[in-house]
Design a protein that fits this description.
This protein is α/β, with parallel strands linked by helices and 360 residues long. The chain contains 14 helices and five strands. It has a five-stranded parallel beta sheet with strand order 2-3-4-1-5, sandwiched between helices. Strand 3, helix 8 and strand 4 form a beta-alpha-beta unit. About 2% of the residues have low confidence.
Length: 360
């Protein structure tokens, strides 16, 4: 809906998201009840279900819980005085595994706790903003990074300042608003082999030195891109400060190679089933499709949620009101999942793979 358009890269959008109450799950109506609804009422009910299925909340997967625990430990122990360097966390994983979601939800919980404990205003009367968040782009430079931080806070001098002035404004905003966590998303856009990439990487170290915050970075394939080595090679790589300051948190996809992996996959399916509002859904609707759903999504939570969301939309629109293999076969998702689908399906059909728990 148009009223829900906002961005987490501005303080107003972040606060709106952080303060938003939990969504109310639409009532599950029986098929006969839906047929008795008028045309407008039925359209409104279906629209509410579409909105719910696209936003039914964060599934607390084992991966999310594990990284939240790690982040909590890192943030809680970063109590150093301003003259000492705080360690940073970096969530490094393949696309579609929920890096951004994990970082944002952890920071949202922290934001709520800080404002609940200390109030919405600082003692000096400034807005208390426990978290700032920015997302990098492929053209991020030192100046644009500073500008994005200032834009999050809504600093009035953002448009006419140079890089040094923007850096000073950013420091003032963080300190005045008593910010404690800074999220830098899409860190993989920094190329440590390019001049502007080295400048941004060095500037991140400067910000870590100057700001009393814990940085949480998220990106794709950061180790492979040698971001931790800052582009240095051979013996020079030991001179890289990043690898000593950042704690790398890996985020694996779901797998079905052992009992624990199969148990986690089944738990995800059961938790998702409980969220769906389809009139002809039945217990184990998704669990019965465990192999199929894994083959379709390769165990990537982002691909899985996309398939379920689009499947629910079509199930409601067509009147099927349940998810079946036949219906889901008509839904296309990301190309990476589609490319791996038939190889995985062959493994399941040959008995080399299974996502069902061994109860024997």
């Amino acid at each position: 809906m148009i009223t829900n358009i906002y961005t987490l890269s501005r303080k107003e959008g972040w606060q709106r998201w952080a303060d938003a109450p939990a969504r109310v799950r639409p009532e599950l109506l029986a098929p006969k009840q839906i047929t008795k609804l008028g045309e407008d009422a039925r359209a409104d009910y279906n629209d509410a279900r579409h909105d719910w299925h696209a936003n039914f909340g964060i599934l607390k997967t084992p991966q999310l819980a594990a990284i939240h625990d790690e982040l909590d430990q890192i943030v809680a122990t970063n109590r150093q005085d301003p003259d000492r360097i705080r360690g940073a966390a970096v969530i490094d994983a393949l696309p579609g595994l929920g890096k951004t979601t994990i970082a944002n939800t952890f920071a949202r919980d922290f934001d709520r706790a800080q404002r609940r404990r200390f109030g919405d205003l600082t003692e000096e009367g400034h807005e208390r903003l426990p978290v700032f968040r920015v997302g990098l782009t492929s053209r991020t430079t030192l100046r644009t990074l500073n500008r994005m931080i200032c834009e999050f806070y809504g600093h009035p001098g953002t448009d006419r300042a140079n890089a040094a002035q923007l850096a000073s404004f950013a420091v003032d905003c963080v300190i005045s608003c008593q910010t404690r966590i800074g999220i830098i998303d899409d860190l993989h856009f920094i190329d440590p082999n390019r001049r502007d990439g080295i400048e941004v990487s060095n500037h991140l170290k400067w910000l870590a030195n100057e700001l009393p915050v814990t940085f949480i970075y998220a990106g794709v394939g950061l180790a492979e891109r040698r971001l931790f080595a800052e582009g240095l090679t051979g013996d020079n790589a030991v001179m890289a400060q990043t690898a000593r300051r950042w704690t790398r948190l890996e985020l694996p996809p779901f797998h079905v190679g052992d009992q624990a992996g199969r148990r986690h996959w089944q738990s995800l399916l059961k938790a998702t089933e409980r969220q769906l509002v389809l009139t002809k859904a039945h217990p184990s609707m998704l669990v019965d499709l465990a192999d199929y759903l894994f083959a379709r999504t390769t165990g990537h939570i982002g691909s899985f949620i996309t398939l379920i969301t689009r499947g629910c939309y079509k199930a409601i629109r067509t009147g099927a009101e349940k998810l079946t293999e036949r219906l889901l076969d008509t839904i296309r998702i990301d190309e990476a999942s589609e490319a791996a689908r038939y190889h995985l399906q062959a493994g399941f059909q040959a008995g080399k793979l299974t996502s069902y728990r061994n109860t024997g």
